[in-house]
Structure formats: structure tokens, C-alpha cells
Amino acid sequence: MIVLDSNILIEIFDKHSSVGGRFYDRIIDSREPFSTTALNLHEVRYGLEKYARLSEELSRLPILNYTSEDAKLSSSLEVMTERKGRKVRRMDSMIAATVINNAGRLFTTDVRHFEIFREAGLLLFR
């Protein structure tokens, strides 16, 4: 399953983005199921409510909820990165944990933010 990060969703929902069209085509061409996380839904809805308008298409996306198992893993991921001397955004560790626990592959343009989680099992969609 492909899990769409906020930056991918933003490009796809931007009607003027040619990049978003290419991202959408890659997802469809993969023939894999896709979803996003409740955390990414929050980020995208916030931006749309503040700067644009909500899209009904957003409400049709399958959503992976953030669970207590995700909380356990994300806290471990955050501690792991801090012990390596690298501070990460809490939201990124929460998204990574949700993707790992759902056996997904994260589709993101922020590879630099998420690469540190690869050793913990995070797979990226490329």
C-alpha cells in the first residue's frame, strides 16, 4: 500500500500543479492501493481551510488512523533519532510509525525528513 504524505496530497489537489498530475499518474500506474494517515489529513485540511477551500475529494481518501501501537513506535523512533544527535519533527515520527505498522510505503518529496526511519523499517515509494 502506498501512503501519501502531505506534500504529495497538496500537489495532487492543486489544480495548477503539473507535478501533482505526474504524482497521481505514478500512483495509478502502480496499481497498488493507496491511503494517507489521519495526521496527514490534519495537515492538509488545516492548509486548505486556512488558505484555500476544502475539496470533497479529500474526504474520499482511505485514512489510516493513529493508534496506541503507532504511539509506542513513534516515541521509540523519536528517541532513536535523538540518540543519534538528530532532532526530527514529532509529526514525522508519528507518520513514519503509522506507515511502518500498516506495512505501507511512504510517498513523499521530503525524503530527507524520513530517511532516518528506514533503518527502523520505513519503506519509501519511489
pLDDT averaged over residues:
93
The 3D shape can be described as globular
Number of E strands: 5
CATH superfamily: 5'-nuclease
Give the number of domains.
1
CATH architecture: 3-Layer(aba) Sandwich
Biggest sheet strand order reads: 3-2-1-4-5
What helical percentage do the residues reach?
Answer: 40-55%
The parts where pLDDT drops under 50 for at least 5 residues are none
Please give the radius of gyration in angstroms: 14 Å
| Distance from first to last alpha carbon | 13 Å
Number of helices: 6
The level 1 CATH classification is Alpha Beta
SS-derived structural category: alpha/beta
Largest sheet: 5 strands, parallel
N to C succession of SSEs: EHHEHEHHEHE
CATH topology: Rossmann fold
Our estimate of the beta-strand percent is 5-15%
Note down, in words, how this protein is organized.
The protein has 126 residues and is of the alpha/beta class. The protein has one domain: 5'-nuclease (Rossmann fold). 53% of the residues lie in helices and 11% in strands. It contains 6 helices and 5 strands. The chain has helices spanning 6-13, 18-30, 38-51, 68-83, 90-101, 111-114; strands spanning 2-4, 34-37, 63-64, 105-107, 123-124. The chain has a 5-stranded parallel β-sheet. Helix 1 (6-13) packs across helix 2, helix 1 crosses helix 3 (38-51) and helix 4 (68-83) crosses helix 5. It is globular and about 40 Å long. 28% of the residues are buried.
Task: Please give a handful of descriptors for the protein shown.
about 130 residues; alpha/beta; single chain; Rossmann fold; five-stranded parallel sheet; 6 helices
